[in-house]
Amino acid sequence: MIITDLLIGEHGAFRALLDEIEDMATFAGDVAQIESATTVLAAEIKAHASLEEELLFSALEPHLESNDLLTKVHAEHREIRQGLERIEEARDLDEALNSVRETLAILRQHFDNEEEFFYAAARQVLDDETLNRLGETWKKVRSGPQGI
Is residue 58 part of a domain? Predict the structure, then answer.
C-alpha cells in the first residue's frame, strides 16, 4: 500500500479522535480532564508527523522545484506541537478549552492541506515503487511496540 493512503487513513482516525476530544472538552469539568483527553492524541500526532517527515518529506524534497510546500508543512507541524503544549500547560479550564478548540481547528485544516496539496504532490512526483516502499517502511514502524 502506498504511504499517502496510509497517512490519509491515520488522518481519518485522528479526525474521529478530534471529534471525541471536542465533545469531551465541551463537557469537561477541569483542566486535568482536558489534558487527559489530549494525551493519546498528542503522542499519536507526534509519531505521525515524525514518520511523515522522516519518510515522505525526505523522499519528496529532491523532486520539488522549491521548498515552499515543505516549509509550509513544517511550519504547520510546529504550530500543532505548540498548540498541544499549550493544552498541556493550561492553568485553568478556560485556557484549556480555548487551546483545545484552536489546536483542533489547526489540525483539521492541516490534514485537509496535506491531503489536497502535499500528498497529491507526492503522488505526482514519486513513482509507485517508491510510494509502496515508503508504505512498507511505515507499516513496519507503526506495527512495532510504539505503533497505534
Answer: yes
- The radius of gyration of the chain from alpha carbons, rounded to an integer in Å, stands at 16
**DSSP category for residue 53:** I
pTM: 0.87
Give the burial class of 125: count Cβ atoms within 10 A of its Cβ; 0-12 exposed, 13-18 middle, 19 or more buried.
middle
| H or E segment and range at residue 59 | helix 58-60
At residue 29, the pLDDT reads 59
- Residue for cell digits 469531551? 24
Q: What is the CATH number of the domain that holds 98?
A: 1.20.120.520
How many angstroms separate the CA atoms of 21 and 46, rounded?
Answer: 17
Which CA distances in Å does 66 have to 61, 63, 71, 89? Answer: 9, 9, 9, 36
